[in-house]
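Posted in: Structural Biology > Protein-Ligand Complexes

Title: Requesting predicted complex, BIS(adenosine)-5'-tetraphosphate in pocket

I'd be grateful if someone could produce the C-alpha cells for the following input. Sequence and ligand are given below.
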Amino acid sequence: MLNIILCGAPGSGKGTQSAFLAEQYGLAHLSTGDVLRAEIKSGSELGKKIESLISAGNLVSDDLIFGVIERFIAQLPKDCKGMIFDGYPRTVAQAESLTELLKKNQMDAIMIDLMVDEQLLTDRLLERGKISGRADDNIDTIRHRIAVYHEQTEPVAKYYLHKGNYFAVNGNHTVEEVSLQLKRIVELATR
Ligand code: B4P
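-- Reply #1 --
Done. Output follows.
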C-alpha cells in the first residue's frame, strides 16, 4: 500500500498536488481542510466552532482531527491502493497518533514536505482569496497561519526526518514541475 503524507505551509500546494497524486496512483485522498470546511457548510454547532478557529488562522484540536482520520481509515474499500493525507498531520501529537494508527493497521507512510518561499505563499493565497471566498485567505489571517505553521507544523518535518521516511520537494516551481518532482520521489521511495 502506498501511503503519502503531504505537508507544507499554507498555500504550498498540498491540495493541488494531492489531487495529482491521488489521480496518478489511484489513492484515496483525505484533505482534513476539506472535511472541516464541509462541517462548517453543514451549519452544525461543531461547524460553528471550527469556523471561528479557521477564520482566525488557528488549527482545530488534535482530538477532533483524530476522529476524522479514524473514520476515514475505517471506511476504506478492501482493494484500496493507498492513501494520501493532505494537510495532516499538522502537529507532532497528530503525527504520533497517525504512526500508532497506521501501525495498528500494519501500514506505514512516506512524508513529503513542500518547501515554498514565504512571499510566494502569501501571493498564492491572496490570489486564491480573489475567487475562493475562504475566510482565511486574507493578509492578516495568512500571516498568522504562516506563524502557526512555523510554531506547530514545522516540528512535524523533524519528526519524520528522525523516523527516516522524509522527503523534501522544492515547491516554488510551476504546478507541473512540482508534480514531476513528486512523481520521481514516489518512484524512488517505492522501488
Ligand atoms: P488546508 O485546507 O489544508 O489548506 P491550505 O494550507 O490553505 O492550502 P494548500 O497547501 O492545500 O494550498 P493549495 O493547493 O490550495 O487548511 C485550511 C485550514 O484548515 C488550516 O489553516 C487549519 O485551520 C485547518 N486544518 C486543516 N487540517 C488540519 C489539521 N490536520 N489539524 C488542525 N487544523 C487543520 O494552493 C494554494 C493556491 O496556490 C491555489 O490557488 C493553487 O492554485 C495555487 N498553487 C498551488 N501550487 C502552485 C504552483 N506550483 N504555482 C503557482 N500556484 C500554485
